[in-house]
Specification:
CATH superfamily of chain A: Lumazine/riboflavin synthase
Oligomer: heterodimer
Number of strands of chain B: 8
Low-confidence stretches of chain A: none
Helix content of chain B: 25-40%
Helix content of chain A: 25-40%
Strand content of chain A: 15-25%
Shape of chain A: globular
Number of domains of chain A: 1
Number of domains of chain B: 2
Low-confidence stretches of chain B: none
Largest sheet of chain A: 4 strands, parallel
Number of helices of chain B: 11
Largest sheet of chain B: 6 strands, mixed
Structural class of chain A: alpha/beta
Mean pLDDT of chain B: 90
Radius of gyration of chain B: 20 Å
Number of strands of chain A: 4
Radius of gyration of chain A: 15 Å
Chain lengths: 145, 274
C-alpha cells in the first residue's frame, strides 16, 4: 500500500455487532448508499466481546483505524453487553494516547439496525479524519510475523 | 513506632486473639515477609522498608494470604500493612481470593521520605493504627512529563523505553494484584516467544490495560524492572482516567466491584446524567 499523502487510502477494521451495527451496515448496502470502500467489517455477536487487545492487535498489524459499532445503550440484545464497551473504550483510548498512538484512530459508535444512513456518514467522516492523520506509524510492526 | 507495633503484636499472640501475625522480618541483613506464630520471634519484626507484604505466589497465581486461608480456614491472622499492602489485599478480596473478615488488619503510615521514594499519593492505610498520616506527592506533577508530550514524542519515548525490555515478566510477577490464571502476556498472538525486545506496544499494552482498574500504585513493577522502565508513568495516567471516567479508585472498599468487569454504571455517573 502506498503511503504518499495524496493517494493514501486508510484501512479501517470495523468490529460490528451482529444485531445492530452489522445490520445497519447491511441496510446501507441494500439501500445503495455510497460510502468509501476502506472498511473491513468483522461481525461479532456483541460489541461487548471486543477485547481492547483486539483493537491493539488490529492497529499493530497495520489497520489505520478501528471502528467499534454497537447497539445504542439500552438496546443491547444481551441487555448490558454494550455497557462493558462503553466503559472499556475510553480507557483503551487513554492508554493508546499515553503510549503515543493517536486515540483518534479508535472510534466507538452506536449504530442501530435502522441507521444505514448514519453508518455511511460515520465511514465518510472516519475516512476523512484518518486521511488527515496519515498512515499508522505502527503498521508492519517491529518484526515481520 | 516499631517497639509499639512489636508490643501490640506480642500482646495479640500471647492472648491468642490471632493465630499468627504476618509481617516483615529482618534477619542477617535481609528483609522478607514472615508469618510470626511465637511472640519471642517478634524481635525480628521490622517495618518501613520497600519490601511488599502481600504478593502473588507463582505459578499458583494466588495471594500469599489466600494460601494461608486455604490451609487454615477460619483462623484469624493479623497482617501488618502499609497503604499499598492494604489496597492490594482489598483488590484481591474483590476478586474472591481472600476473606477480609478473617484478617485483623493493622496499618501503619509511611513517612514523607518513603512516600516520595515510591511516588505514593496515599501513603497510609484505612485501618491506621500506628504512625502519623502524611500527604504523599501528587500524581499530577509526576505524570506531567508524558502528559505534556505530543503523541509523536510519546511514541518515540516509549519505543526507546520498551526497546530495553528483556521480557523477564518481572513487572507481572511482582504485581500483588495480577492474579489471572491464564495470562495474556504469555499469549503468542501478542508477543511471540523468543522475540526480543517484544513488539511495541503489544506486550506492555496487555499488562497496562488489564490492570487499569486494579492498579494500587504500589510501584512494585518499577522496583522489579531490571531495565528501569518507568512503568508507573502510564499506570498513573490510567488510574487518573479510571477515576475521572468510571468514578473508581482501586483498593478503597473490598465490597466494591471492579468497574471494567461489571456492567453497572457508577452511581456518580447516573447522578450527573452522563
Amino acid at each position: 500500500m502506498s503511503s504518499t499523502p495524496d493517494n493514501f487510502e486508510p484501512r479501517i477494521v470495523a468490529f460490528l455487532c451482529n444485531w445492530c451495527s452489522y445490520t445497519g451496515a447491511d441496510l446501507a448496502g441494500i439501500s445503495r448508499m455510497n460510502y468509501p470502500a476502506n472498511v473491513r467489517a468483522i461481525r461479532l455477536m456483541c460489541s461487548g466481546s471486543v477485547k481492547p487487545f483486539f483493537i491493539m492487535s488490529a492497529l499493530h498489524k497495520g489497520a489505520d483505524g478501528v471502528l467499534i459499532g454497537g447497539c445504542h445503550i439500552g438496546d443491547c440484545h444481551y441487555q448490558t453487553g454494550n455497557h462493558l464497551t462503553k466503559k472499556r473504550i475510553p480507557i483503551t483510548r487513554e492508554l493508546l494516547g499515553a503510549l503515543g498512538i493517536d486515540p483518534r484512530r479508535v472510534r466507538l459508535e452506536w449504530i442501530s439496525a435502522a441507521e444505514g444512513q448514519e453508518f455511511a456518514e460515520v465511514i465518510h467522516e472516519f475516512v476523512k479524519e484518518l486521511k488527515a492523520l496519515g498512515p499508522n506509524p505502527l503498521a508492519g510492526g517491529d518484526h515481520a510475523h | 513506632m516499631l517497639t509499639e507495633i512489636r508490643k501490640h503484636c506480642a500482646d495479640l499472640l500471647t492472648r491468642k486473639q490471632v493465630a499468627a501475625v504476618y509481617g516483615l522480618r529482618e534477619r542477617d541483613g535481609h528483609t522478607a515477609p514472615y508469618l510470626f506464630t511465637r511472640a519471642e520471634d517478634l524481635d525480628g519484626l521490622t517495618v518501613g522498608t520497600k519490601v511488599p507484604v502481600t504478593f502473588t505466589l507463582r505459578p499458583a497465581k494466588k495471594n500469599i494470604i489466600s494460601a494461608f486461608q486455604e490451609k487454615c480456614p477460619g483462623q484469624k491472622i493479623a497482617v501488618l500493612v502499609r497503604g499499598c499492602d492494604e489496597r492490594g489485599l482489598y483488590e484481591v478480596a474483590k476478586r474472591g481470593q481472600i476473606q477480609v473478615a478473617d484478617l485483623a488488619i493493622i496499618g501503619y503510615a509511611c513517612d514523607a521520605d518513603q512516600a516520595r521514594a515510591c511516588h505514593c499519593p496515599r501513603p497510609h492505610p484505612q485501618n491506621l493504627k500506628f504512625g502519623e498520616k502524611v500527604q504523599g506527592p501528587s500524581n499530577e506533577a509526576f505524570i506531567a512529563k508524558i502528559v505534556n508530550m505530543s503523541v509523536a514524542e510519546r511514541e518515540a519515548f516509549w519505543r526507546a523505553q520498551f526497546s530495553k525490555c528483556i521480557k523477564c515478566y518481572g513487572c507481572r510477577n511482582s504485581c500483588p494484584v495480577c492474579i489471572c490464571k491464564e495470562c495474556w502476556m504469555e499469549n503468542d498472538a501478542f508477543s511471540p516467544t523468543g522475540w526480543l525486545p517484544p513488539d511495541f506496544p503489544m506486550f506492555h499494552f496487555v499488562h497496562f490495560y488489564h490492570l487499569s482498574d486494579s492498579c494500587i500504585e504500589c510501584g512494585a513493577c518499577v522496583d522489579a524492572c531490571p531495565m528501569d522502565i518507568p512503568l508507573n508513568l502510564i499506570r498513573k495516567v490510567l488510574s487518573k482516567k479510571v477515576q475521572e471516567e468510571l468514578f473508581y479508585t482501586a483498593g478503597q472498599d473490598p465490597e466494591e466491584k471492579p468497574p471494567l468487569a461489571s456492567r453497572e454504571e457508577a452511581k456518580e455517573r447516573l447522578e450527573k446524567g452522563i
